[in-house]
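Record type: monomer structure entry
Structure origin: computed from sequence
Chain ID: A
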Amino acid sequence: MAKELLYGVGIFIPVSNLAKSTTWYEETLDFELIHSDEPNAKTFRTCDGKVIFSLVKCENITQPKFPKNDYDVGVYYNFLTTDVEKIHQEMLAKDANVSPIHDYGEVKGFSVTDPDGNRFGIVT
Protein backbone atom coordinates (compact mmCIF):
# COMPACT_ATOMS: atom_id res chain seq x y z
CA MET A 1 0.00 0.00 0.00
CA ALA A 2 1.36 3.42 -0.91
CA LYS A 3 2.22 5.68 2.00
CA GLU A 4 0.22 8.63 0.74
CA LEU A 5 -3.05 6.71 0.89
CA LEU A 6 -3.00 6.92 4.72
CA TYR A 7 -2.08 10.36 6.00
CA GLY A 8 -3.81 11.04 9.32
CA VAL A 9 -6.00 9.74 12.13
CA GLY A 10 -9.62 10.37 13.08
CA ILE A 11 -10.69 9.68 16.64
CA PHE A 12 -14.23 9.68 18.05
CA ILE A 13 -14.63 10.72 21.71
CA PRO A 14 -17.87 10.16 23.67
CA VAL A 15 -19.03 13.21 25.64
CA SER A 16 -22.11 13.86 27.74
CA ASN A 17 -22.30 17.64 27.31
CA LEU A 18 -21.27 18.82 23.84
CA ALA A 19 -21.06 22.52 24.74
CA LYS A 20 -18.97 21.95 27.88
CA SER A 21 -16.65 19.53 26.08
CA THR A 22 -16.29 21.87 23.10
CA THR A 23 -15.04 24.59 25.44
CA TRP A 24 -12.68 22.16 27.21
CA TYR A 25 -11.08 20.86 23.99
CA GLU A 26 -10.73 24.38 22.57
CA GLU A 27 -9.34 25.96 25.74
CA THR A 28 -7.35 23.12 27.28
CA LEU A 29 -5.93 21.38 24.21
CA ASP A 30 -6.13 24.35 21.80
CA PHE A 31 -7.99 22.26 19.22
CA GLU A 32 -9.53 24.10 16.27
CA LEU A 33 -13.24 23.56 15.58
CA ILE A 34 -13.64 22.69 11.89
CA HIS A 35 -17.16 21.29 11.67
CA SER A 36 -20.36 21.25 13.72
CA ASP A 37 -23.20 18.75 13.55
CA GLU A 38 -25.02 20.12 16.59
CA PRO A 39 -26.60 18.82 18.68
CA ASN A 40 -24.88 15.48 18.02
CA ALA A 41 -21.21 16.10 17.25
CA LYS A 42 -18.39 18.57 16.67
CA THR A 43 -15.13 17.96 14.84
CA PHE A 44 -11.76 19.48 15.67
CA ARG A 45 -8.24 19.25 14.35
CA THR A 46 -4.98 19.36 16.24
CA CYS A 47 -2.48 22.11 15.51
CA ASP A 48 -0.69 20.08 12.82
CA GLY A 49 -4.00 19.03 11.24
CA LYS A 50 -3.01 15.36 11.05
CA VAL A 51 -5.36 14.23 13.79
CA ILE A 52 -9.09 14.88 13.67
CA PHE A 53 -11.16 14.59 16.86
CA SER A 54 -14.93 14.23 16.73
CA LEU A 55 -16.77 14.76 19.97
CA VAL A 56 -19.95 12.69 19.86
CA LYS A 57 -22.78 13.37 22.33
CA CYS A 58 -23.54 10.10 24.09
CA GLU A 59 -25.57 8.81 27.01
CA ASN A 60 -24.38 6.41 29.72
CA ILE A 61 -20.65 6.81 29.00
CA THR A 62 -18.54 4.03 30.45
CA GLN A 63 -14.79 4.58 30.23
CA PRO A 64 -12.73 1.57 29.12
CA LYS A 65 -10.00 0.53 31.50
CA PHE A 66 -6.65 -0.12 29.85
CA PRO A 67 -5.63 -3.73 30.57
CA LYS A 68 -2.93 -4.49 33.13
CA ASN A 69 0.50 -4.53 31.49
CA ASP A 70 4.20 -4.37 32.31
CA TYR A 71 4.84 -1.36 30.05
CA ASP A 72 3.28 1.25 32.37
CA VAL A 73 0.67 2.22 29.76
CA GLY A 74 -2.77 3.30 30.94
CA VAL A 75 -4.10 5.45 28.08
CA TYR A 76 -5.21 4.60 24.56
CA TYR A 77 -3.90 7.79 22.88
CA ASN A 78 -0.81 9.97 23.31
CA PHE A 79 -0.26 13.49 22.06
CA LEU A 80 3.34 14.40 21.28
CA THR A 81 4.98 17.58 22.54
CA THR A 82 8.41 19.15 22.33
CA ASP A 83 8.17 20.64 25.84
CA VAL A 84 6.35 18.46 28.36
CA GLU A 85 7.11 20.73 31.33
CA LYS A 86 5.72 23.83 29.58
CA ILE A 87 2.48 22.22 28.44
CA HIS A 88 2.05 20.62 31.88
CA GLN A 89 2.34 24.06 33.53
CA GLU A 90 -0.06 25.59 30.98
CA MET A 91 -2.65 22.90 31.67
CA LEU A 92 -2.26 23.28 35.43
CA ALA A 93 -2.87 27.02 34.99
CA LYS A 94 -6.10 26.13 33.13
CA ASP A 95 -7.14 23.88 36.07
CA ALA A 96 -6.99 20.79 33.86
CA ASN A 97 -7.07 17.37 35.52
CA VAL A 98 -3.45 16.29 34.93
CA SER A 99 -1.19 13.71 36.55
CA PRO A 100 2.34 14.49 37.69
CA ILE A 101 5.03 14.25 35.00
CA HIS A 102 6.61 10.81 34.82
CA ASP A 103 10.21 10.45 33.64
CA TYR A 104 10.94 7.29 31.64
CA GLY A 105 14.47 8.28 30.61
CA GLU A 106 14.28 9.48 27.01
CA VAL A 107 10.51 9.94 27.29
CA LYS A 108 8.64 12.12 29.78
CA GLY A 109 4.92 12.44 30.00
CA PHE A 110 1.71 12.87 31.95
CA SER A 111 -1.97 12.19 31.48
CA VAL A 112 -4.84 14.64 31.14
CA THR A 113 -8.51 13.78 31.67
CA ASP A 114 -11.44 15.57 30.06
CA PRO A 115 -14.74 16.32 31.87
CA ASP A 116 -16.18 12.88 30.90
CA GLY A 117 -13.18 10.89 32.07
CA ASN A 118 -11.58 10.41 28.64
CA ARG A 119 -7.86 10.15 29.42
CA PHE A 120 -4.97 10.99 27.10
CA GLY A 121 -1.20 10.92 27.47
CA ILE A 122 1.05 13.83 26.59
CA VAL A 123 4.64 12.75 25.96
CA THR A 124 7.94 13.94 24.55
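Annotation 1: Strands lie at 9-15, 32-37, 41-45, 51-57, 78-80, 97-98, 102-103, 108-113, 119-123.
Annotation 2: The radius of gyration is 15 Å.
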